[in-house]
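Ticket reopened. Same input as before:
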Amino acid sequence: MTSQVTDSLAFLLSKLGQATAERFAERLAPLGLRPRHCAVLQLLEGAPLGQLALARTIGVTPSVVVDMLDELEGVGAVRRTRDTADRRRQLVELTDEGRELSLSAARAAAQVDAELLSGLAPDQRSALRRALTAIATAQDLLPRG
Amino acid sequence: MTSQVTDSLAFLLSKLGQATAERFAERLAPLGLRPRHCAVLQLLEGAPLGQLALARTIGVTPSVVVDMLDELEGVGAVRRTRDTADRRRQLVELTDEGRELSLSAARAAAQVDAELLSGLAPDQRSALRRALTAIATAQDLLPRG
DNA sequence: CCATATGATTAGGTTGCCGAATCATATGGG
DNA sequence: CCCATATGATTCGGCAACCTAATCATATGG
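Engineering reply: fixed in the latest deploy. New output:
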């Protein structure tokens, strides 16, 4: 009856989160993408953005954005163009290829979801999603309110 | 209505898992511990183990175990002793200090749990735990069957 | 028109993991 | 008995994903 760390939700969530990330990464690999690219692709589906705005929104430093964009340019998903109004600025926009990749990534994610949820009853699934969303919201983890 | 990666459970779980791990790490820091040490401490609460057995059970490579044990020895939580029956083997056992640290770690984890769950109703909490445990079991992530 | 701020980039460091190579010890077959 | 091979621990080098600080180009306000 001693309470154990591995019984905690914190431990369970950490492990499960890591395992899920790995699985998702495997699914994305054939597309030439990695999990961290997904938030970028999705953000750019709206309008083109500067790199600093991108960095702040997804919560990494500007230098990380440089790397990620180098990679995304490498697979032809995004295009950097100097902002003519402010020539310091790189406007990053999605290519058609990028839009397709973003869709494929969403499909990959959905596949992982299906695998994760396969053992759960429908009401369990929705309860899980609601609970996790509530927690993530409370912890201020979600990109768009 | 377009399905988005960030709407997926996979993405949510990855993010939440990482955030939770960071939070847990902050709680453990004053103890001189990190999340990855916890599984080791807990495993050793049973009987002393060799490092290879440790590695296999927690799912990391032997070289990682070496590092972790160096750290745990550094805070006085474990002791390595050559197995007299097989002198290649290091028998790793918990010290009294280690037992106390393990308890403190469990308390830290419980605190994080409380924070995570604070916004949820009791029935939501148990539903969440059941769902996560079911998934983790299905994915073969739990140390002890 | 110069001081200062801002956007992107580069360089270098840290953490946590991995695989391959190394070293000591054990064990079984000739 | 002794050597080939296996096993346990360790070391070393590498990789991924982040960070900070320094640098460079361009803007902007006094």
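Chain B touches chain A through 58 residues (CB under 8 Å). The helical segments of chain B are 9-28, 35-44, 51-58, 62-74, 96-117, 122-138. Please confirm and we'll close it.
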